[in-house]
Amino acid sequence: MSEERLATDPELFPLRPGRGTIALHATGFRHPAGFGAERFVAYSDVTHLATGIRAIRIGTQHGLVAIPRSFFRDPTDGDRLVRALLERIAREPGGSLQLARMAEIEESLRQPFTPWVTHAVAVACVAIYVLGLVVGPTLEHAGFFSSTLSTHGEPWRLVTGNLLHAGWLHLVLNMMGLVLIGSLVERMIGSARTVLVMGFAALGTTLAGLVMHYEYMIGASGIVTGLFGALLWLELRLPDRLPAMWRIPRRLLWLALGCQLVLDLMLPFVASAAHIGGFLAGGLAAALSVGPGLRRDRLAPALAVATSLVVMVAGASVLSAARLAAGGRALELHAARLLELEDIAPMILNDVAWFIATSPKPSDAALASATQLAERAVRETERANPDLLDTLAEVEFQRGRASDALDTIDEAIALAPDVDYFREQRRRFRGERAADDRPAPPAAPYIERGPAAPGEPMLPPPDDEHPGVEI
């Protein structure tokens, strides 16, 4: 094609060398699709046109065509292309209805909207993480998801496990996904429906955990995958209602989904079933609550009630976990509950015994329960873990049984003779240090997946019976 025709033909929009040409035809336009291929889009398939500072975005029934302005030879050709497409659409048999729908989309974009639900959940996750750094490991212990504990008197874990994170990197990655995808979904469907999507996703995540018998699971990525499920449902079912600037090319959506599945299969510490549960539940929530009007539609009464229930259940769950983290009577009941259960990891038994022993003025009943928990943890690990022996020694010391504490700490010293912490504990039990002068814990663990220090969370590693660590 000659350069002269490219420059003068009003139906051709030349791109920079190697980028191809956009050509208008009688019923549609042809555009480059990468790797030398071209794609044809009928004018009747165009759903919205957006002229951004950096790109021209053309929404269609089958996806998104995004053309960076830098691709055009003439900087004004991007706006000229949009005007030409609008003129062609107006000539189509259903063009007036098509343009009216685009006008509705433009009107919704002019209405100010803040995705406050997404921001609130992100702030809550960050605040809980920071609070955990201040309060200590009791906060994580009070809220992590466990299929056994969730079905034996602690149902709040179905919710709170979604709000906890294993470290700053885990938190940052999940919050990036939450804010990016959540803000996009909330702008499309509104805040109330976003509450439903997040609530369904959180529940779908932990229900999958129940099915798979996960005994330790934390992280908000189940909610993130639920939001992604809602976003994919919107893209596939209501593309003609979505603003072009809020859409993501379908190839990227499918690629992201595929990468997530591959990571789930490759990384043993990821609770893959929980991701699938969150994804399906989030998509289902969107299917049940979102209509053609998106956020402009009124929420049905039943869905409004469901939204209120999600908020109330989330609030009650956080309060229940906070009561347990605060100790006192709630911690005593928790200890008694653990003693009644058989399939509880020794590390969890140890944690609770340590929390009781190191709490201010524990009751005699609480210390008696702590003794049983610590003895059971030590017995089930065949007295081979110095951390667990140290916890038992601490409990014995708090109960006034200094000689028993000395015998037990001597076992820990024999297992870890180079660790000064255990020797300082022995000096304390002998009265050479003040009773309340507990030595600083060591900085390194003694077992492959154990605690960083006595009393810090020692959570069960994933295995055939207790899969899943974080999501």
Low-confidence stretches: 2-8, 446-467
Instruction: Please identify the structural class as seen in this structure.
Output: alpha+beta
Total beta strand runs: 7
Largest sheet: 4 strands, antiparallel
- Principal-axis shape: elongated
Task: Write the element-wise H/E pattern from the N-terminal end onward.
Answer: HEEEEEEEHHHHHHHHHHHHHHHHHH
Taking all Cα atoms into account, the compactness measure Rg is 29 Å
What does this structure look like?
The protein has 19 helices and seven strands. By secondary structure, it is an alpha+beta fold. The strands form two sheets. Strands 1-2-3-4 form a four-stranded antiparallel beta sheet. The protein has a three-stranded antiparallel beta sheet with strand order 5-6-7. Strand 6 (55-60) and strand 7 form a beta hairpin. The chain is elongated, with a radius of gyration of 29 Å.
Care to give the gist of this entry?
With 471 residues, the protein is an alpha+beta fold.
Give me the secondary-structure topology:
Elements: H1 3-8, E1 12-14, E2 21-24, E3 28-34, E4 37-42, E5 46-51, E6 55-60, E7 63-68, H2 77-91, H3 95-110, H4 116-135, H5 138-143, H6 147-150, H7 157-160, H8 168-189, H9 191-212, H10 221-237, H11 250-266, H12 272-289, H13 301-326, H14 329-340, H15 346-357, H16 364-380, H17 386-398, H18 402-415, H19 420-429
Antiparallel strand pairs: 1-2, 2-3, 3-4, 5-6, 6-7
Helix pairs in contact: 2-3, 4-8, 8-9, 8-10, 9-10, 9-12, 9-13, 10-12, 13-14, 14-15, 14-16, 15-16, 15-17, 16-17, 17-18, 18-19
